[in-house]
Each structure stands twice: as C-alpha cells, then as structure tokens.
Amino acid sequence: MCAANDKELKALVREQFTRTAQVFGDYAVAHRVTAAERLARMVSAGPHDRAVDLACGPGTLALRFARHVRWICALDLTPAILALARNNAKKEALSNLFCALGDAQALPFGDGSLDIAVTSYSLHHISDPAKVVNEMARVIKPEGRVGVLDIVVPEDPKIRELNHRVEYIRDHSHSRSLARSDFDRIFSAAGLRIVATEVHGHPRTFDHWMHVAGWRKSDREYAEARELMESSMTDDGADFHPRFEPADVAKPGEKPEIYMINTGIYIAAEKI
Question: Could you say which of 29, 54, 172, 231 would form a disulfide bridge with 104 (CB–CB 3.0 to 4.6 Å)?
Fold first, then answer.
C-alpha cells in the first residue's frame, strides 16, 4: 500500500506536489497562517535566530517565521513547489528568506549551525521520519529548538490502518501517520526534550480535502476514498470524525457534503 523504498517514495512526493503545486500551495499559505504563528510562538522564534523550514512546500512556515527571525532557509525536494515559496517570498518582500532545493533527510548545514529547525505536514510523507528529526537535532545548537506540526493518529492499530488506507488513496506519497508515542520515541532518541505540545482539530469538507490533493468527483480515487469515509461514520473508525450536516440538502443527483476534521499535533522541543 506504500512505496517499496525511499527512492520510490521521494519520486511519488515530487510527482504529487508537482501535479498539485498551485492548488495545494494556495491553500497552505492562505489557511495555515494561524498554525505557523502558533508554532513560531511555541519555539520562541526571535530576531537573533537562524532557522530552517525543511520540506517547506510553498513556504507554509517560512513565510511567517521570516517575520520573527534573523534568517530562514526554506528547503524542499520538489522544484515546482519550491518555486512557489520563492515567488511568495518575493511578493512579500522577505529579504531574509532564502530557498534551496534539498532533502530533509540530509540537511545541507553544519552541526550546531542553526538555532531553530521546523517542518509542517512532512513526516507522514517520509520513509524514515526518525532520520529527519535526527537531522533537525544535528543542525541546531545546544538548547536550540525544533518545531514539528503534523498529522497525529490514535494508538489503536485498527484505526491507524483504516486512516492510512484513506490517506493513501487520496495521496500515494503518504507513507504513514504517527501516533503520540511515535513522536515521543523519535524525539527522545534524537536527544530532544519535548517542552510543549498542542493538539488541534482542523475542520474542512471532504470535497475540499480531495480537491487540494488534485482529485475531482468523477475520479475513481475520489469515489473510493469517499466510500471508506462514509463507512467509518458509525464508529469514527478512521479518526476523521466525518458527518453529514443535518441542515445541508444535497442537490438532485448529488451526494450530501461530508464534513471532517484533520487532527494535527504541534510539538516544540529543545536539544538536550
């Protein structure tokens, strides 16, 4: 159900975010401002800090962090989405934001050369998320800060399995979502002490969720994911909290809108 190896998964990531660069980029920059500012607060981003936003996408975090820090590098694996980050920085006249093509699992920075390393919604696209967190820990100074925002799933293996099936149908570059215990283990092994966590639900419609991933209602992937989402409503078996709004009336020949919640975890940590 997922890529056989790291090389194939990276190819899927490039394919997915090249195909959806504009629609995903517009959504992430416009709708994740509050999330980016929340993470900046949690890691105490300040005017003397040098930072990296790895797997930066269209600059989801970097565009906001640039307003708080001395310097930030926005780094991503996919040229098409990185071009959006570069254009967004230019439009907003952010002279302290620099863009670089690169791999989150092999950051182009020396040991202890930065104050802050952050990433958003990237670890579930990566075959070895622990390696990324290790890299984040490596490049920051002692007592430097790491900030992560990502999907979080329950510990229950049955819920995690169904959640993954839906996520993978929607986006084949989805590797796996992590539970809280996974984050705790990975951060601890990297020599990072978690100092703050917040969990927030992000409401949206199923149609918009699929649209941002590049699918139309006529696509097989849309129909397959919707069927699984509907089947999970009775017991919330995939942890998306899906529902039909009682007041909504579907147009003739159309199915009613599904409302859902993506659950995200915000983690701030310090290098021990």
Answer: 54
Q: What is the enclosing helix (H) or strand (E) of 196?
A: strand 192-205
Q: Is 3 helix (H, G, I), strand (E, B) or coil?
A: coil
Distance of CA 268 to the CA centre of its chain: 15
pLDDT bin (cut points 50, 70, 90) of residue 244 is very high
Q: Which two tokens stand for residue 177?
A: 């979502």
CA distance 138 to 155: 28
Domains and CATH numbers, the chain: 6-153+173-203+263-271 (3.40.50.150), 204-259 (no CATH)
pLDDT at 63 over 60: yes
Write out the H or E segment, with its range, that includes residue 23. Answer: helix 21-31
pLDDT digits (tens, 9 = 90+) for 179-229: 999 999 999 999 999 999 999 999 999 999 999 999 999 999 999 999 999
* Nearest CA-CA partner of 265 in 121, 89, 74: 121
**Pair of tokens at residue 2:** 């997922």
- Backbone dihedral region for residue 252 (phi beyond 0: left; psi -120 to 50: alpha; all else: beta): beta
Burial class (CB in 10 A: 0-12, 13-18, 19+), 234: exposed
Residue 95 has pLDDT above 80, yes or no: yes
Residue 80 amino acid letter:
A
Helical H segments across 142-266, by residue range: 157-170, 180-189, 206-212, 220-231
